[in-house]
Prior knowledge:
The protein has 9 helices and 14 strands. By secondary structure, it is of the alpha/beta class.
Amino acid sequence: xDADVDAVMDSGMDxxxxxxxxxDVLVLGGAGVDTVVYxxxxxxxxxxxxxxxxxxxxxxxxxxxxxxxxxxxxGLRTHHLDLLGDDPEGDLVRALHERHGIALTAVPQxxxxxxxxxxxxPDGRRLSxxxxxxxxxxxxFPPDTLRDLAAAxxxxxxAITPGCADALPxxxxxxxxxxxxxxxxxxxNPHHEPFAFTADxxxxxxxxxxxxxxxxxxxxGHGRAEAVVxxxxxxxxxxxxxxxxxxxxxAVAPPGPVVDSNGAGDAFAAAFVxxxxxxxxxxxxxxxxxxxxxxxxxxxxxxxxxxxxxxLLTAAxx
Length: 318
């Protein structure tokens, strides 16, 4: 691997860079830090000040971190690759991975570690404010590092954060199955299209879609997706498979009070990929995703927790 890369491989896993598959899932991008603020309502009316009685907390955990956490909790050998700054935020991300035994390769990012502010309402809805200054147009992953990790991986889950689009051809050349999460894509923004049309499994939210089915079929028609999943919160999810069949996946009742939707989509994706790598059909994978997503809604955004393999499988059978 490149000498300028800070590799932290503290999970006890040996990465096979000689053509083997010593990594179950390579998570690419999406590492960062969120400041979580529990507000009285969303949208938040203008006021000179608000008193936040539930506190304001900064913690590691953006989309890639949460997917990696979910995968590792399910027993998958997980490796996370992203750009991190030499800053307090980067230290929080490194500590999160070390605490959960997730291998991390951190590429130095002079612009600093990605940051966001999450406003969370009492009913668990979230508004995220992303600091786009923590990135550069020329962000790239070192080619040798990327190729080595791709060659050692069975699957890659790719965030839509800076540098990841240029990694897609390398992953494809390595023969790695790819999944991605387009989050609240509106079906038109061209930034998302390379991810949508390259991945084998595509996740996205229905939040900004006027016609979810049309967007799903466009992804399948223009790309190579064997499964497209649109999550719709309490309305469940929609699954489009390679045979063109569109199926509704019922929502799963959360096992406790809903406190925060932050991380629910990441939990869904992690459980779906777990099912996929276990040889389950897409409909079964989506059921696992629904269970994990429902559980994530019961966990405050200030905490980092994910379902274990036994807990997921037990809940999915009920």
